[in-house]
Design a protein that fits this description.
The relative contact order is 0.16. The chain is globular and about 50 Å long. It is mainly alpha-helical. Helices cover 66% and strands 0% of the residues.
């Protein structure tokens, strides 16, 4: 069990919105999560430096959160990320951070602090006010980022004209994509599950990066990762889920074999050109860290 005594850690402080977004992205990318890029693991076309540049881009654009809409924030950050990193490192993260940041800005315009209840309520109000312009900007950001595994769909395809209602488009993808689902459920997965889980892991682990790895394993055990579903299919994603659940059980039992099983799962996720990269889970973790850094759960 970790001690709260000693030096104050970043996740135990409240940060301004731009700094919170930047730190969240850096911490998420720095943790040695399964199947993801981190300081000692790269993909053939992407390494940790890309994520550092992207995090700086996020902090840079989010300085103007008080005067940007959700769509404008997503689009401006996607453009800056392309300029700075030259690849898609953070589209799903941006889709999650933007409505939360706009909601947080609205709270801070009248209050000095943010808590989970006020942010949950404010993000619901923010989502209810999305306009056709927000939809067009988000679709433009998606085309800039060119995320993998999207394919083509009959309705609301990202290569076609943006629909007037972004929520309707997100609803279509919500069954397999947890990022899209947050637009339909008011970020319930973040506030009701992932944030409490993060707070619990931070109480257990002295190292916040280790706590993030445990949080990732816990979510992977909870449901199939959306990016793996899109790239490899539901059966492959369910295989990963079952394996993650078994490894998570070993950690719960404090089994000496748990680290070895964790390493084997990590290597499995990196086979076949990283097609099993649990990218949706990474986006959700960055979003959860952002909420914590804003003051939720402290």
């Amino acid at each position: 069990m970790s001690s709260r005594a000693g030096c104050v850690k970043p996740l135990d402080q409240t940060w301004p919105i731009p700094a919170a977004a930047q730190i969240a992205c850096l911490l998420e990318a720095s943790a040695p999560k399964l199947g993801n890029v981190h300081p000692t693991a790269s993909f053939h076309d992407m390494h940790f430096g890309h994520f550092v540049a992207s995090a700086i881009a996020v902090g840079q654009v989010f300085q103007d959160v008080h005067k940007l809409t959700v769509g404008q924030l997503v689009l401006a950050t996607a453009e800056t990320t392309q300029q700075r990193a030259g690849c898609n490192t953070n589209l799903g993260t941006l889709l999650l951070l933007a409505p939360l940041a706009v909601a947080a800005s609205s709270i801070l315009s009248v209050n000095h602090s943010i808590d989970s209840k006020s942010l949950c309520r404010a993000v619901g109000q923010t989502l209810s006010k999305l306009t056709p312009a927000d939809s067009r900007d988000v679709y433009a950001a998606i085309r800039i980022a060119k995320p993998g595994g999207l394919g083509r769909v009959q309705d609301n395809d990202v290569l076609a004209q943006a629909p007037d209602c972004l929520i309707a488009a997100m609803t279509q993808a919500a069954q397999i994509d947890a990022v899209a689902r947050q637009y339909t459920n008011g970020f319930a997965d973040i506030f009701q599950r992932l944030l409490p889980w993060l707070n619990a892991e931070l109480q257990w682990e002295a190292d916040p990066l280790a706590a993030i790895v445990r949080l990732q394993l816990r979510w992977l055990a909870h449901e199939p990762d959306g990016l793996i579903v899109r790239k490899m299919g539901i059966e492959s994603a369910q295989d990963v889920q079952r394996w993650a659940a078994a490894v998570h059980d070993l950690f719960q039992q404090v089994s000496p074999t748990a680290p070895l099983e964790l390493e084997e799962l990590d290597q499995f996720l990196r086979h076949e050109s990283n097609l099993r990269n649990p990218g949706t889970t990474a986006d959700l973790i960055a979003c959860t860290l952002f909420c914590r850094l804003l003051g939720c759960g402290l």
